[in-house]
Records
---
Amino acid sequence: MAKSGLSMADVEKMSAREAFGTALAEVGEKFPNLVLLGADAIGSTRAAAFAKRFPDRTFNFGIAEQEMVSAAAGFALRGKIAVATAYGFLLSLRACEQVRTDICYQNLNVKLMATHTGLSMADAGTTHHSTEDVAIMRSFANMTVVAPSDSVETVKAVEAVIRYPGPVYLRMGRGAMSSVNTDNYEFIIGKAHTLVPGSDVTIIAYGVMVNEALIAAQRLEEQGISARVVNMHTIKPLDTECVLAAAKETGAIVTAEEHTIFGGLGEAVAGCVTSAHPVPVIRVGLQDSFSVFGAEGEVRAAMGLTADSIIHAAMQAVSMK
């Protein structure tokens, strides 16, 4: 990848958090006012690459996420670009009040870069599952919410987030992700990326569910259903132009997210089309339940976060047109 100095082949071999750590270290060279804050997980989030290169710009707060977020606000008030890293459930739940009041209320230039989100810590138990974070962050005024779909997009997103003014929540997983993006598309916060054209139904997804959407679209094509696939990497601000075009041109929408169906992408899309161009919207996600414990793939399947679930929803949406 020319801009970052990383080759695409190298990036594709990385997990999202490895891509994040590597990209952050490189971006640190471009932004001398960027500081990193951690809460005893700098190694686990892979932000250690930045810490090793810039030890004097790295601050560890121990197991104290609230204090870390409040300190990030202080750094921002002093003109720094503050990057606070932690697991998704800790940033969105444990430090929720500090995110809202210290950062968003003051509209400060703090970047919350969360790893281990969604069900990527499936084997750690429900307390460590991050399936409400998008709803929480999306509800805060001034907050931007970004969720890359693979390592290539993660590298692009890191620099875009650093350059973007104001509070941003960057949502990343833990392990390897299937590559769905090429290096030649321009990542723009707030601008969705259409991966597959289609005329019968649109599948809008983010994160790991983009790959499931692509699998579903291929199988739907075999059944004579043309499915458009949109990578909605920015949940807030939502690309309403893209959503409304999908509603008008395909007449049915399925949303897919590794998150509860409440407050996330599904509700954002439904709200958009309801107010401007009503069409059927079926939401694939956690259905008003907590997730179970187990191996990551098995937990996703148990919670209905699969291509099969997307196919079923797409066929249902098409039948409702």
Note: The chain has a mean pLDDT of 95.
---
Amino acid sequence: MARRVRFGWLGPLIVAVGTAVAGFGLWIMMKNKPVPGVVIDEIKLDDDKAMIRVRSEASGTRAFVELHVGGDLKWQALVPPYGGRPGVPGIAWSDKVVMVRVVRNDRAEVFALAMQDASKLGGIHLAPDKGPIKRDTEGPVTLTDHVRSYELVSGEGWSQIVGVSLDLGKILWKRDLSPAAIESGGIEGGFVWVQQAGAKRWFNVFSGKEDRSVDKIGPPPQTGLPPLAPSGPDADMPAPKPL
């Protein structure tokens, strides 16, 4: 007859150790759980009741993107380091998508989140054939007409504008700019414009084709003034002959 082995207190001890290990693992997870930090930016949507709020990560470099409607938090998403700055948004949106400008490995990207529930729809690398980007630029980062976003990206010796479809989630066009600092930008009458060194360049929002007409960029600069015709009582007198 086989001898029956009794574990005695060993069974409860194993259970207690397992419980302690599980509890410690849960504590580690809770301790390392990302926590929202200070507010970086707030962008009001089409109506004043809805707002996108961007927060830093309290103990990290990532960012939280939040949708608030009527004062209530609808969703919150954790994304890589935010590519915008206070007062210079890196956010574009339509009724279906929120697109967030982010930076990873010193390269610019955009993350697309569903407006309804913040589920990630995809991501796009901007200017992948260029070098590392500059983070301390002065001009705008993202412009939007809520159909497309126009991403302005700069690095050492280069700048580029990239048109992205919000709902399709793909690059529509891109154009190289001069290496000068991007000072400002905007959207007017079917064109997106960028100002560098005091001069504006205009690009069609659908195709990215540049419009260099006089209506957009003005007449060519004058290099001098034409001579004035003589006037006054001596206008008809011949010039004196040299002696």
Note: The radius of gyration is 30 Å.
